[in-house]
Amino acid sequence: MNAPSDIETQSRQWLVEIAAGREAALEQFYRHYHGQAFQFALRLVSNSADAAELANEAMLEVWRSATRFAGDSRVRTWLFGIVNHRAIDLLRRRRRLHSDEVDELIDESPGCSVADVIGGAQDAGRVRACVAQLPERQKAVVHLAFFEELSYPEVAQVLNVPVGTIKTRVMHAKLRLQQCLAGAFADARSLS
Amino acid sequence: MSSTTPFDSSALIPWYLNGTLATEERRAVESWLVASGSDVELQMWRAVQQQVRIDRAVEPGTELGWRRLRGQLGIAQEATRPAWKWRAALAAGILAIASFQTLILLRQETVHLPLSGTTVASPDAWRLQVRFAERATIRDINALLLRIDAHIADGPSALGVYEISIPRADATNVDDLLQELRREPLIEQVTLPP
User: Fold this and answer.
1) Domain spans, chain B
2) Among A27-31, A125-129, B1-5, B19-23, where is mean pLDDT lowest?
3) Cβ contact A91:A97 at 8 Å
């Protein structure tokens, strides 16, 4: 295992102090991590008001349960796990965990033209729109991999699912992205 | 891992790109890319990576968020307080109930959203004129007001402008407060009343 980074060492120290009830340590923790917690929450709930509420709830949870940090993951991974857990609670309350997000099935049927996928991927705005239309669970994986640059075992830990499920979600996301990019490119081509 | 399947290799491309794969996994993905003879997946994921990296949503103001959280810590501490203290807390709570009820009654007069008329301005609160983003729902606005410890004191006007009230104890400098509120995604415009 690599040596912990400076920020990881500092974060663990903050948690020790938070566990001892030091509000100043929570403030430093909050200032460092609140933005990241919000960005991740936003991918889970797709609504800035809910995301802000989730990030706040996660910070409150850190205050309450810093003693439960076992030290077997990075602090950031642990915090994102709390955000994810809170988001699941919220979505369950609103009954927004749909069956279309079941991970087991992959629809391999629709074939896309390679040229259309590559053509679609050249347009940043189109890529952004296609990522935005992914279901929240797939969006969360993409965000954690590319925005937070977590490893895939860490992503699995944050989302509290087996590694195999993460791979399946990536394959789902890949197919959706290919279809979206190719479809948008073909539409644009037919209009021109 | 030498047992990496084509499915695994394809599914691991995002982590091949973010550089977090173990050496063997990285080699397996590279071998698969060569064997498949097409880098369309790699190109697609690379485009997604570039887009996601820069896709940072506007974050809510840290100062107001922190002040709200700090205000909640007392509640969190109460919840985790050792058992031997609960009786003292209960006694204090009973004494506080009567005055708290009075506070609720007073507060109810100003918390509601007046569609016309105005509430009395308090010298202990900043009054600000706010226009919310068109996409903001009532639930969004309520969540925002709760988070920044504000309530609607007047409005909306015919132009959709509200006056909100924020305790001065939460923000001693009104310019800082205005700056922070301008960073809120749901607030389109915020100014001091003329």
Assistant:
1) 6-54, 62-191
2) B1-5
3) yes
- Region of A2 (left: φ > 0; alpha: ψ -120 to 50; beta: rest) is beta
What pLDDT score was predicted for residue B91? 52
Residue B78: pLDDT band by 50, 70, 90 thresholds?
low
Chain B residues close to A167, C-beta within 8 Å = 7-8, 11-12
Residues contacting B21, CB < 8 A, separation 6+: A151, B12, B15, B29
Mean pLDDT along residues B136-156: 80
ipTM computed for the complex? 0.85
Q: What does each C-alpha distance from A87 to A45, A84, A104, B1 come to in angstroms?
A: 7, 5, 21, 34
- Superfamily in which the B62-191 domain is placed by CATH: Peptidase S8 propeptide/proteinase inhibitor I9 (3.30.70.80)
Q: Using the structure block, give the residue that is written with the tokens 């390679």.
A: A114
Alpha-carbon distance of B130 to B190, in angstroms, equals: 4
Q: Where are the domains of chain A?
A: 6-93, 102-191
- Read off the tokens for A21: 């009830």
Measured distance CA(A75)–CA(A146) in Å, rounded: 18
> Which CATH architecture describes the domain A6-93?
Orthogonal Bundle (1.10)
Contacts of A191 (CB under 8 A, 6+ apart): none
Cβ of A103: how many Cβ atoms within 10 Å? 17
| N-term to C-term CA, chain B | 68
Q: For A81-122, what is each residue's pLDDT tens digit?
A: 999 999 998 888 876 655 444 444 455 545 678 888 888 888
pLDDT tens digits, residue range B29-54?
999 999 987 788 999 999 999 999 99
Q: Which residues on chain B are in Cβ contact (under 8 Å) with A36?
A: none
Contact B18/A at CB under 8 A: yes
**CATH topology agreement for domains A6-93 and A102-191:** no
- For position B107, what pLDDT does the model report? 41
Mutate to test the interface with A, among B69, B140, B181, B187 (most CBs of A within 10 A): B69
Please give the CATH topology (third level) of the domain spanning A102-191. Arc Repressor Mutant, subunit A (1.10.10)
- As a whole number of angstroms, the longest Cα–Cα distance in chain A is 65
- B-chain CB neighbours of A128 within 8 Å are 51, 55
